[in-house]
């Protein structure tokens, strides 16, 4: 790291002296992360993360099985009547990158480690670009403390946060490869991309690759114009090799995810008739016209408002988060609203249905970003500006249909993702990087003596280009401050009305209280304008006095670090503050209710439970039982169809075939109801009726009696013909249960068909009769069925997906190859005599 960051003037210094600034920076980052999350580190509290709590509920069965049996369960029945654990809780022993991640996080607790990694990786990126350590610290703070980073941690999106944390390593590797040293750059890129892909948040990786693609296009154009195309291609080939190794290390996870995506609600529905949508219900995640992605309305449900983009500079422009605390001295407080209600008021008045908080880059960062458009070298500034603009356009989603619908339809893979407002993560990377490079450009060591006497404590030298830089600093300050002033003046034309206001009126909000709430929204906006102007003025003043020779570089850089940190820290605490921490651990949150305790007395091997209280958006039930519902963003597509068209319509026969034995009602008088119609784990049917399409199969469920009849889609299983069976005296029972292995014993007087209350999943489940493979097929739209011979026999179902075994083997080979490549690159770099920049291709960055 030091070899890349330092110029030849310091290369002769002892190694410990060169390393000391970086060691101090790492210690500072660890301290910052620990102080921000001090309730976790010093008080033993936990962060109340909704999605992590739900994850623990859904993963509990698989995790307990792994502890007991010493091997992973690849399937779980804890959610949605059964689904693979690929996207829930599954480890791939062939992927060794987890060991590197543990080393980088220094043993820090979760979320503390996330913030530390974001700071560390941002610092490595900037140091690799030649930025001086103290300025790199300022840039790292800007990257790590962007409000979105902390807001997503508050929500429990830990993998998204980790993917963002590793993104600067990827960018740093690419920049160093093309602009400085191709071997060091390729090694840094391979490590960064390996870790980024490892955490398995592909939407963040996708946005990162869009930013990389813009950079690559600009570099390609420059290489062609300057006659450097062969060298460009060589460096690109090295990066391609690094990317192949990175993907290979996570191949097991990517392969199983890609396989599962074909069957998940991120893929197409086989049904042609649209599902009914209740008033106020979110659109289903189905593909249009049998496409390969999610529905447009579903994808663009969370779109950033066009005017809302100003929150990058003024966080409370639209009231902040959907619910924010207001003090007793607020307009609402003075209007007489009781204090117990003021802790969570609907201050947000923008277009989004919900927001955990705005995307705020920082007033100081916005000022430095605009300054970077004037002072950073062209290739870098054009790349980062283009990435920022694209980010904003994509985040607008349905608010800029002309552009975004075209992108949604044409950009490969883009229609797999939802919540397009997340595209602002591109700007979250680009803006701080350009801002840090701008700060580095201004805070340079000076080499020309001043023309006037030097005052004590001031800078000893002044650069000849100081006047030119100063004018650009003033321009950037004027533009940024001007935007704040315009926002302030525009606020007097807003009515600050929100869609939720009508609902508040129904709940008893008087006109006086509603007027007071809107006045509070106005105050939030205007107060943040003044706050932003204060930080912009302070940052401008630091650079002004530095360029005038009145302030030395070291104190100027220190003050800029402090300003960036104070600016972002103060806003971050609005969305992830002390009120987000709790004494109880996640395990303690899962306390069985009286209903759970009653159901758990049933010692049968397997049955299912339906919780009527928000059944398909909660995993509390999954922690204790095999649930009909659950909480997951990518459930099986066919099961989603079943929910929308049958379960939501209270089709009791469908619930019976899913073996729903218990119903948690939420009624204190009768919290649990036992369902006498549950069909059990398996049963013989007297007839099988073919239909011609998935739509006919779904429609048949509306009148089907699954206890005696099964319906099969002949377009998918043409070998299954209409048939009737004599099932007199035939019995079957589940004798052994594991999440991914089931054993049954049956006695049949005649050949017949057995239906299992288990979800059909073609890529992995294998059926065996007396140890011999037997083909099974799908019936009743989601269930497994098996043709069986008469007599006493044993049936086994084992979940043995080839994608897991093959993917894990590729991951292992790739992990070994990556390790050898990194060792080889390290040895090669250690033996080289040349400096960090290479040949004519090397270009200035910082």
From TrEMBL:
Annotated stretches, region: Disordered: 266-291
Comp. bias intervals (Low complexity): 274-287
TM segment ranges: 22-42, 73-92, 104-127, 134-155, 205-224, 236-255, 354-375, 382-399, 419-439, 473-494, 529-547, 554-571, 809-829
Key words, A-Z: Membrane, Transmembrane, Transmembrane helix
Any Pfam family matching the protein: YfhO
InterPro entries: Uncharacterised_YfhO
Family matches, as PANTHER family: INTEGRAL MEMBRANE PROTEIN, INTEGRAL MEMBRANE PROTEIN-RELATED
Official protein name in the record: YfhO family protein
Source organism per UniProt: Hymenobacter ruricola
């Amino acid at each position: 790291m030091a070899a890349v960051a330092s110029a030849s003037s310091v290369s002769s210094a002892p190694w410990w002296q060169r390393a000391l600034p970086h060691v101090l920076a790492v210690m500072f980052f660890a301290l910052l992360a620990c102080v921000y999350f001090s309730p976790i580190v010093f008080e033993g509290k936990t962060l109340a993360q909704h999605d992590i709590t739900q994850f623990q509920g859904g993963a509990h069965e698989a995790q307990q099985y792994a502890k007991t049996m010493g091997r992973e369960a690849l399937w779980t029945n804890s959610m949605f009547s059964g689904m693979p654990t690929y996207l829930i809780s599954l480890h791939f022993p062939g992927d060794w990158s987890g060991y590197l991640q543990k080393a980088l996080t220094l043993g820090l607790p979760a979320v503390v480690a996330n913030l530390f990694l974001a700071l560390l990786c941002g610092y490595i990126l900037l140091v690799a670009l030649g930025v001086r350590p103290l300025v790199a610290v300022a840039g790292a703070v800007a990257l790590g403390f962007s409000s979105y980073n902390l807001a997503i941690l508050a929500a429990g999106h830990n993998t998204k946060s980790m993917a963002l944390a590793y993104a600067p390593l990827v960018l740093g590797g690419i920049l160093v490869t093309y602009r400085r040293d191709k071997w060091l750059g390729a090694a840094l890129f391979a490590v960064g991309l390996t870790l980024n892909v490892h955490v398995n948040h592909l939407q963040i990786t996708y946005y990162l690759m869009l930013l990389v693609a813009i950079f690559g296009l600009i570099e390609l154009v420059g290489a062609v114009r300057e006659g450097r195309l062969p060298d460009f291609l060589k460096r690109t080939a090295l990066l391609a090799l690094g990317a192949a190794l990175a993907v290979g290390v996570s191949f097991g996870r990517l392969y199983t995810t890609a396989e599962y995506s074909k069957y998940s609600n991120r893929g197409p529905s086989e049904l042609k008739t649209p599902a009914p949508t209740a008033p106020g219900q979110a659109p289903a995640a189905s593909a249009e016209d049998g496409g390969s992605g999610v529905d447009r309305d579903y994808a663009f449900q969370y779109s950033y408002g066009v005017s809302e983009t100003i929150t990058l500079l003024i966080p409370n422009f639209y009231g902040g988060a959907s619910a924010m605390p207001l003090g007793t001295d607020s307009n609402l407080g003075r209007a007489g609203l009781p204090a117990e209600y003021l802790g969570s008021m609907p201050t947000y008045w923008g277009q989004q249905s919900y927001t955990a908080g705005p995307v705020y880059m920082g007033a100081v960062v916005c000022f430095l970003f605009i300054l970077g458009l004037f002072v950073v070298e062209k290739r870098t500034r054009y790349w980062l500006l283009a990435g920022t603009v694209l980010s904003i356009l994509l985040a607008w989603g349905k608010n800029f249909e002309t552009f975004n619908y075209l992108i949604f339809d044409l950009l490969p893979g883009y229609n797999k993702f939802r919540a397009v407002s997340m595209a602002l993560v591109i700007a979250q990377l680009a803006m701080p990087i350009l801002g840090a490079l701008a700060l580095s450009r201004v805070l340079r060591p000076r080499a020309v003596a001043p023309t006037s006497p030097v005052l004590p404590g001031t800078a000893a030298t002044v650069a000849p280009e100081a006047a030119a830089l100063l004018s650009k600093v003033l321009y950037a300050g004027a533009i940024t401050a001007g935007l704040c002033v315009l926002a302030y003046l525009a606020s007097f034309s807003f009515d600050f009305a929100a869609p939720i206001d009508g609902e508040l009126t129904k709940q008893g909000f008087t006109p006086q209280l509603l007027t007071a709430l809107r006045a509070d929204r106005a105050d939030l906006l205007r107060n943040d304008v003044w706050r932003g102007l204060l930080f912009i003025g302070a940052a401008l003043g630091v650079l002004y006095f530095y360029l005038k020779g009145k302030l030395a570089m070291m104190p100027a850089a220190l003050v800029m670090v402090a300003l960036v940190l104070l600016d972002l820290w103060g806003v971050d605490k609005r969305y992830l503050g002390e009120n987000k921490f709790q004494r109880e651990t996640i395990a303690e949150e899962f306390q069985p209710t009286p209903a759970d305790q009653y159901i758990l007395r049933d010692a049968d091997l397997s049955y299912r439970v339906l919780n009527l209280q928000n059944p398909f958006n909660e995993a509390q039930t999954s922690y204790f039982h095999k649930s009909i519902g659950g909480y997951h963003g990518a459930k099986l597509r066919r099961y989603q169809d079943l929910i929308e068209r049958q379960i939501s319509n209270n089709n009791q026969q469908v619930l019976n075939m899913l073996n729903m034995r218990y119903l948690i009602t939420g009624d204190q008088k009768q919290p649990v109801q036992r369902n006498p119609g549950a069909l059990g784990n398996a049963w013989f049917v007297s007839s099988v009726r073919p239909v011609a399409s998935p739509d006919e199969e779904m429609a048949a469920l509306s009148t089907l009696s699954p206890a005696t009849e099964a319906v099969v889609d002949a377009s998918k299983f043409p070998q299954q013909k209409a048939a009737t069976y004599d099932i007199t005296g035939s019995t079957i029972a589940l004798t052994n249960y594991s999440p991914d292995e089931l054993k049954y014993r049956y006695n049949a007087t005649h050949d017949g068909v057995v239906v299992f209350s288990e979800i059909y999943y073609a890529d992995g489940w294998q059926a065996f009769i007396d140890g011999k493979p037997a083909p099974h097929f799908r019936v009743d739209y989601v269930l497994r069925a098996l043709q069986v011979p008469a007599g006493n026999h044993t049936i086994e179902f084992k979940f043995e997906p080839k994608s897991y075994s093959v993917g894990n083997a590729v991951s292992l080979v790739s992990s070994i190859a990556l390790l050898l490549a990194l060792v080889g690159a390290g040895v090669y770099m250690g033996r080289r005599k040349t400096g960090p920049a290479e040949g004519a291709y090397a270009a200035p960055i910082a």
